From TrEMBL, chain A:
<dbReference type="InterPro" id="IPR023765">
    <property type="entry name" value="SBP_5_CS"/>
</dbReference>
<keyword id="KW-0732">Signal</keyword>
<keyword id="KW-0813">Transport</keyword>
<feature type="domain" description="Solute-binding protein family 5">
    <location>
        <begin position="92"/>
        <end position="447"/>
    </location>
</feature>
<dbReference type="Pfam" id="PF00496">
    <property type="entry name" value="SBP_bac_5"/>
</dbReference>
<dbReference type="InterPro" id="IPR030678">
    <property type="entry name" value="Peptide/Ni-bd"/>
</dbReference>
<dbReference type="GO" id="GO:1904680">
    <property type="term" value="F:peptide transmembrane transporter activity"/>
</dbReference>
<comment type="similarity">
    <text>Belongs to the bacterial solute-binding protein 5 family.</text>
</comment>
<dbReference type="InterPro" id="IPR039424">
    <property type="entry name" value="SBP_5"/>
</dbReference>
From TrEMBL, chain B:
<dbReference type="GO" id="GO:0005886">
    <property type="term" value="C:plasma membrane"/>
</dbReference>
<dbReference type="InterPro" id="IPR000515">
    <property type="entry name" value="MetI-like"/>
</dbReference>
<feature type="transmembrane region" description="Helical">
    <location>
        <begin position="134"/>
        <end position="158"/>
    </location>
</feature>
<feature type="transmembrane region" description="Helical">
    <location>
        <begin position="281"/>
        <end position="300"/>
    </location>
</feature>
<keyword id="KW-0812">Transmembrane</keyword>
<keyword id="KW-1133">Transmembrane helix</keyword>
<protein>
    <submittedName>
        <fullName>Peptide/nickel transport system permease protein</fullName>
    </submittedName>
</protein>
<feature type="domain" description="ABC transmembrane type-1">
    <location>
        <begin position="95"/>
        <end position="300"/>
    </location>
</feature>
<feature type="transmembrane region" description="Helical">
    <location>
        <begin position="178"/>
        <end position="196"/>
    </location>
</feature>
């Protein structure tokens, strides 16, 4: 079933069009349950335990302070925000039922869903919503989501089931920001207890379809069905065991021998080892992930745009993708594969995408490097694709005289360099939620509004990002982001290489699992065991 | 004996104290911290500052150390920064798995290695000796991850079976526990058995050349008596020393096998704590390894006296 079929009841265009008319009063009708998380199954059988193998263990299960993707993948089943990041790019009402937008587009009046209960048994009210989002947006509370919520100036309950959110400037991405990446709605006052932050790893207080039953480090996290869940008839599974298996060989053996019912593979090419195995089904899904080369302008001569363009012209993305993930993905230009259709610019309409060694050499000569120069590439230990990609890249850049040495660093070291904007020339591996503002703004807008990790300091790009954020009209917004992508492709602060597909391997008794492009396990809220 | 024990324990306490300082400084010398790991690429300076304050990372390092030490001395190892669980409980649970792994490995390796070593020594230079030597070389040369992987893949292809991936303690189900532990124990034991066998063979061969053996032979004592009464007793002390070393090695370094077979042991806990910069777990875990190593050494030293009453502990 395609994503457009899945979300037939409210399609993206309708929602965006409604957003365009929002200056008067945007009202999103309540989402039918089938819209969320994937299609409900007509023939589903309730009950049973599903064992999902995870190669990367979540470092914790606290959605308010832990940014790791491995955490988000699981906790989206436990905690819920006001909106759901539908794969086609719309923010669909989740704990919200709909909203009205003021004529100046600065005040969102959000109506909340009735009959929602926390895992603790209390009913969810507007007070809880205001408390939770106020907690996240106050950077002093240490939430990684604080930056995304900086445009919010006030959140207050107006009655039992209505909350008013005021923002400092129009922001078309606000509903998507109120999604499920960070935080979620928890009971008001939850963090007043001294042990609240650590307790989230032992007992859940969300509103999601599953509750946390057990979290054993290096072993498993077990979720059980939330009997008081607000959507009728779902989820189907009684129990999910997330089993932490730290190496692919054991995971594949576990899948073959039915110790594991379902897993997504970190190295797409590993799928070859289970293809054709009786009782196993392999599915390939597009992703919002990007494997990229970042070019930090703090490192000379990467501060020279001509040098960055020359590097881009020497990079054969397809060759790197084939070498590093066996070709199981999509070469990209300036947009992740899962959003290409909605927001991307075709690669042939973007500059510096096609290999042109002569042009690259000419640019290097103009920049004062006719014989090339020595450059160090940083790759991260544990990211397998980077090892093969690094060797391939060295060959490619060697053709324009760049002598590439490869430095492998541990993730903690890499993150430290990244955060302190000293990333230099490095591989990167990151993902987004489906909105161009959330994809680009923080990473590429100049400081202080954005983090500008690559020291790009591009005024034109920043102006376009501001424009794109405030524009509500979908057609105009798309046009703005098209122009932005042209600037990015021309100036090359980053070289987006490819999006690796999600490779899902499941036992054929696991039904109706649809892998969300973010890589998060929303699909388990609709999966069942035959 | 009591005085010796008291002295050793006092010396161990001083060593543990020094080790705690080294461990404390060592874990902090690795670039990056838990806040960087938690906030990832989205890091907000204000949020980062707030979290650093929450974890006490904004304090001078000496204050952090003495604060931690004061709590440790009252048996308060704190709470894991990332998992939110009491550190002592986490270390205890992980240690239980690793101790089972270590002792089961030691038992199996002894069961395989000692008889093979004796057999080889008794047939020095013969076909049996050469075969055992070849097997020992193979066992010593093969990396443990390779042995583990081959066993896992071999058993899976041959019997359509693989060990359960969620650890179950023996108190919950002995059968399930044994089916989980069988392959990891065998993987480690094959390697250790080779080292054992080599060690025992060498010890016996050199003991065979000693005067007391020649005298016993001259007196017409039976080979069996010479072997079990004289030879084994004399090689018992180096053998126990060797066993102690193996035990420490497994307790402190079973991370590869634990990762391969998804065992929630101490090695894997330490590794994941390094990745997340979870200092309370890392410090307590490394300290546990140091203390265990000291206790094993102490136990080995005390066993000398039991094996040979002539040994004076001082």
């Amino acid at each position: 079933m395609s994503s457009s079929d899945m979300f037939g009841l409210i399609d993206r265009r309708t929602l965006l069009a409604m957003g365009g008319l929002a200056a008067a009063a945007a009202i999103i009708r309540p989402a039918a349950a089938a819209d969320l998380y994937g299609p409900k199954a007509a023939d589903a059988k309730s009950g049973g335990t599903l064992n999902m193998g995870l190669l990367v263990e979540p470092p914790g299960l606290d959605p308010f302070h832990q940014a790791a993707d491995a955490r988000i993948r699981l906790t989206v089943l436990i905690y819920q925000g006001l909106f759901y990041e539908s794969p086609d790019g719309t923010a669909m009402p989740l704990l919200a039922e709909g909203f009205d937008l003021s004529s100046d587009r600065l005040v969102y009046t959000i109506r909340l869903r009735k009959g929602v209960k926390f895992h603790s048994g209390e009913a969810m009210t507007a007070k809880d919503v205001a408390y939770s989002y106020n907690y996240i947006r106050d950077a002093k509370n240490g939430s990684p989501g604080a930056g995304d919520f900086a445009m919010i100036t006030a959140i207050e309950p107006t009655d039992e089931l209505t909350v008013k959110i005021t923002i400092s400037a129009p922001n078309a991405a606000l509903p998507m920001t109120l999604g499920n990446k960070y935080g979620g709605v928890v009971p008001a006052g939850y963090f007043e207890a001294a042990d609240a932050k650590t307790k989230l790893n032992q007992a859940s207080v969300g509103t999601g379809p599953f509750k946390l039953a057990e979290f054993k480090p290096n072993s498993n996290a077990t979720l059980v069905r939330n009997a008081d869940y607000w959507e009728p008839g779902v989820p189907y599974l009684d129990r999910i065991n997330f089993v932490f298996v730290p190496n692919a060989a054991s995971l594949l053996v576990g899948l073959r021998n039915k110790r594991i019912d379902i897993a997504t593979l970190a190295r797409p090419q590993d799928v070859k080892q289970v293809e054709g195995v009786a009782g196993l089904v392999v599915e390939r899904k597009p992703s919002f992930n990007q494997k990229a080369i970042d070019l930090g302008a703090e490192l000379k001569p990467l501060d020279d745009e001509r040098v960055r363009r020359a590097i881009s012209l020497a990079v054969d993305k397809d060759e790197i993708m084939r070498a590093s993930i066996g070709g199981l993905g999509n070469v990209i230009g300036t947009m992740v594969a899962g959003m290409q259709e909605s927001w991307g610019v075709p690669l042939d309409k973007l500059p510096n995408q096609k290999v042109d060694i002569a042009a690259a050499r000419k640019l290097l000569a103009e920049a004062g490097h006719p014989d090339g120069f020595a450059l160090t590439l940083t790759s991260i230990i544990g990211y397998d694709w980077m090892d093969a990609a690094a060797v391939t890249l060295r060959e490619q850049l060697g053709k324009i005289g760049i002598n590439l040495s490869i430095q492998r660093v541990e993730l903690g070291v890499w993150v430290k360099n990244f955060q302190s904007k000293q990333m230099g020339f490095t591989f990167n591996d990151w993902a987004t939620v489906p909105d161009p503002n959330l994809l680009f703004y923080r990473h590429f807008h100049k400081a202080p509004e954005g983090a500008d990790f690559r020291n790009w300091k591009n005024d034109k790009a920043s102006a376009l990002l501001d424009e794109g954020r405030t524009e509500n009209d979908p057609a105009k917004r798309r046009e703005i982001y098209t122009r932005y992508q042209q600037v990015m492709a021309e100036s090359v602060p980053t070289i987006m290489l490819f999006s690796a597909d999600h490779m899902v391997v499941r036992n054929d008794k696991v039904r109706n699992y649809d892998q969300h492009p973010t890589g998060w396990y929303y699909g388990l809220a609709r999966a069942w065991i035959a | 004996m009591a005085i010796y024990l008291a002295k050793r324990l006092a010396a161990s306490a001083v060593t543990a104290l020094l080790a705690s300082l080294v461990v404390f400084l060592l874990v902090r010398s690795v670039p990056g911290d838990v806040v960087g790991q938690m906030l990832g690429q989205t890091s907000d300076p204000v949020a980062a500052k707030a979290l650093r304050e929450f974890f006490g990372l904004d304090q001078p390092i000496w204050r952090q150390y003495f604060g931690w030490l004061a709590r440790v001395l009252t048996a308060d190892f704190g709470t894991s920064w990332t998992r939110g669980q009491p550190v002592l409980g986490m270390i205890g649970a992980a240690l239980a798995v690793t101790i089972q792994l270590a002792f089961a490995t030691l038992f199996l390796a002894t069961l395989i290695g000692v008889p093979l070593g004796i057999l080889a020594a008794m047939h020095e230079g013969g076909a049996i000796d050469r075969t055992v030597q070849a097997l020992n070389l193979l066992g010593l040369a093969a990396p443990v991850f390779w042995i583990g992987l081959m066993l896992l893949v071999g058993v899976s292809s041959g019997f359509d079976w693989s060990p359960p991936l969620m650890y179950v303690p023996p108190t919950q189900s002995l059968f399930e526990n044994l089916s989980i532990m069988a392959l990891p124990v065998l993987s480690l034991a094959l390697l250790q058995a080779a080292a054992y066998s080599q060690f025992v063979r060498q010890s016996i061969i050199s003991a065979l050349g000693q005067d007391y053996v020649r005298t016993a032979i001259a007196k017409g004592v039976s080979t069996r008596v010479i072997f079990f009464k004289h030879l084994l007793r004399n090689i018992a002390i180096p053998l126990v020393t060797f066993m102690g070393l193996i035990l420490i090695q497994i307790l402190g370094g079973a991370v590869i096998i634990e990762s391969l077979f998804a065992l929630p042991g101490l090695g894997r806990l330490l590794l994941s704590s390094i990745e997340t910069r979870d200092y309370p777990v890392l410090q307590a875990g490394l300290l546990a390894v140091v203390v265990i190593a000291m206790l094993v050494n102490l136990a080995v030293d005390l066993s000398y006296r039991i094996i040979d009453p002539r040994v004076r502990l001082s």
